[in-house]
Write a structure and sequence with these properties.
There is one protein chain. By secondary structure, the chain is an alpha+beta fold. The protein has two domains: 97 residues, Phosphorylase Kinase, domain 1 (2-Layer Sandwich), CATH 3.30.200.20; 202 residues, Aminoglycoside 3'-phosphotransferase, Chain: A, domain 2. Helices cover 45% and strands 17% of the residues. A five-stranded antiparallel sheet has the order 1-2-3-5-4. A three-stranded antiparallel sheet has the order 6-10-11, covered by helices on one side. A two-stranded antiparallel ribbon has the order 7-8. Helix 4 crosses helix 9, helix 8 runs antiparallel to helix 9 and helix 11 runs antiparallel to helix 12. It is globular.
């Protein structure tokens, strides 16, 4: 859809038997893969409607469903919900809204609006506990559930391959290239084991109750068994090293396995975020995305 309105998604839901009101519907354009509409049925129940932006996103729905089936019972033990899809079609995912509200939303112009304090020690503690529970799902369990598994060696090689692909397609500042090469060669940063990760844990995907408790986690599109630090990098990017260490301390206290280079790896992954955006731009081939990626990779 080039021009998108809440009524477009509501019409798709109606075609699948879910009838919602357009009157109190809201549109969230923040996601790179899905547009999201929130709307109510005649009982007042809020629904989430996710409309894929591209065909390749639709192709990944079955994978995300397997991920949800895997993580749901594990997180439910801590009172944390994940989406339970009622509609799954190439053009639409729909499910009843989870309890709580996201810690971060965007305005119509893309400006962030915080609904919590990302630098709160309480949030760092809760996030650490959440990640310890999620990361307790090991590679064998995930593989048996049909979820993608990357070994430590595969994680590292994947980054090498991604850097090579991005460097071939864009002009990359020499300082970035040198930093990435140093990172790839630093044995202390890379994990010795991989675990089940979400991949995009940040407050826009974290639902919070009025008391600050984490009540749900959204958007499992990028989840897989991978580097545990990938779920901590956004915390570093949002609030810096002190709260990253507070999160890791909580993670360890809740049973998460740590190693000396974990914090440094989380910071490196955040610093490598232009690579991820560049790969996204190469997928969409949209001029605006390619221009943004070029600016991130070779800042003036």
């Amino acid at each position: 859809m080039t021009s998108f309105a809440a009524s477009d998604a509501i019409s798709l839901a109606a075609a699948h038997g879910v009838h919602l009101s357009v009157e109190d519907a809201t549109v969230n354009e923040a996601g790179l893969d899905y547009r999201v509409v929130m709307a109510s049925d005649d009982t007042g129940q809020r629904w989430v409607l996710r409309v894929p932006r591209r065909d390749d996103v639709s192709a990944g729905m079955a994978t995300e469903m397997r991920i949800l089936d895997l993580v749901s019972p594990v997180l439910a033990e801590a009172g944390i919900a994940v989406p339970h899809w009622q509609i799954r079609a190439p053009e639409l995912i729909a499910y009843p809204a989870l309890p709580g509200a996201p810690g971060l939303t965007l305005t119509d112009t893309g400006e962030p609006v915080w609904h919590m304090d990302p630098a709160s020690p309480d949030y760092a503690r809760r996030l650490g506990h959440l990640l310890a529970r999620l990361h307790s799902i090991g590679a064998q369990q995930a593989e048996a559930a049909g979820v993608e598994v990357r070994s430590p060696a595969q994680v590292r090689q994947s980054w090498r391959d991604d850097i090579e692909r991005v460097s071939a397609a864009f002009t990359v500042a020499p300082s970035l290239s040198r930093a990435w090469q140093t990172w790839l060669e630093d044995e202390s940063c890379w994990p010795e084991e991989t675990v089940m990760t979400h991949g995009e844990i940040y407050p826009a995907h974290v639902l919070l109750g009025e008391n600050g408790a984490i009540t749900g986690i959204l958007d499992w599109t990028t989840a897989r068994v991978d580097d545990p630090a990938r779920d901590m990098s956004a915390q570093y990017g949002a609030v810096g090293e002190e709260m990253l260490h507070a999160t890791i301390d909580s993670y360890a206290a809740a049973g998460g396995r740590t190693y000396p280079g974990l914090a440094a790896q989380a910071a490196h992954l955040w610093d490598a975020s232009p690579i991820g955006y560049a790969l996204y731009a190469l997928t969409t081939q949209a001029e605006a995305d390619l221009t943004t990626a070029a600016a991130m990779l070779n800042p003036v």
